Amino acid sequence: MRIGMFDSGVGGLTVLKSFIKYHPNNEYFYYGDTLNVPYGDKTKEELLELSKKIIKYLENKKVDIIIIACGTISSNVYDDLTKITNIPIYSIIKETINYALDRKYNKILLIATSATVNSHIFKKNIPNLIEMSCPKLVPLIESRKKEELNLVLKEYFKDIKEIDAIILGCTHYPIIKEEIKNILNTSIIDMGEILAQKIKTKDTLQSIDLYFSKTDEKVKENIKMILGDIC
């Protein structure tokens, strides 16, 4: 199966990694829009225009399905995107909501971009959810500023107590899963892992095609850090 996948930058590679883990024998086409990262501070109109261009790119690759490996796009323009292509599109968010509801957590923390939080897509569907906008995280993750990142995480989480789980509502956040665990000792819900386990694919020969709208040494370092020897 030819699987298209896209995100604002390198974060969606965490989703790609999960899919390769559970569905190794497929052809993957990944688009990271590093030229326009971060997406979290963009308007719905901007997000839609950027996404339309990427959908067109993936259509030209003749993919069988498209995975939106981005919480911001999934929470803001998913419905709009399903209307512009005949290719089946999967949101990174829907299965995560179902997963959280099945486990009946008493108290869940969602961390996500401002655009995702402002959509309230998780809050509308999950009881006892605390929403936290974390606009500083994606730029720090992309730029690999680890010391500053740890300080920002501690500031974000300083008043968080007694939660049963934390939803990583942006696909960049699994990159810093260990740093989050060091501060909040709780269950972590990784959207990419959940979706990868739910999707059924038809095996073919494995190939991985990565495209980024802007590349530099940091992007290359991040690809290596996330995917390792996979590609």
Topology (SSEs and partners):
Blueprint: E1 2-7, H1 13-22, E2 27-32, H2 44-60, E3 65-68, H3 71-76, H4 78-82, E4 89-91, H5 94-103, E5 108-112, H6 114-119, E6 129-133, H7 137-143, H8 146-157, E7 165-168, H9 177-183, E8 187-190, H10 191-198, E9 207-212, H11 217-227
Parallel strand pairs: 1-2, 1-3, 2-9, 3-4, 5-6, 5-7, 7-8
The unreliable regions are none
Rg from C-alpha positions?
17 Å
Number of alpha- plus pi-helical segments: 11
Instruction: Return the string of H and E elements.
Output: EHEHEHHEHEHEHHEHEHEH
Provide the structure class: alpha/beta
Question: Beta-strand level of the residues, as a percent range?
Answer: 15-25%
**pLDDT averaged residue by residue:** 95
How far apart are the termini?
18 Å
Helix content: 40-55%
